[in-house]
Amino acid sequence: MTGTIEATGMHALTGPFHEALRRGELVVQHCKACDRNIMYPRHLCPFCYADDLDFVAAPTTGVLHSFAVHRVGSPTGFEDDLPYAVGVVQLPGDVQLLARLWPDADGGWDAYTCDAEIVFRPADAAETERRPVAWFGLPD
Amino acid sequence: MNDEPVFIGSGELPSGRYPNRPFMGDLVRVAVAAVADAGLTMPDIDTILLIPCLHSPADQADLVFSRVVEELGLAGRAKSSYMVHSGGSTSDNTIRDAAGLITSGHARNVLVLQAEKWGSAPVKDMIDMLTANGIPREWEKASGLSFNAVGALITRRYMHASGSTPADMASVCVALRQWASHNPNAMYRDKELTVEQVLASKMITDPIRALECPMLADGACALVLTSEGNARRLGRERWVRIAGSGGCVSHYSIGQERDLAVLGWANAAVEAYETAGWGPEDADLAEIYDSYAAVLTSGLEGLGLAPKGEAARMFAAGEFSPGGRFPVNTNGGLLSAGHTGVGGGTALLTEGVRQLLGRAGRDRQVEGAARAVCGGSGGTYMDAQVLLLEGVSA
Question: Is A63 within 8 Å of chain B by CB?
Answer without folding.
Answer: no
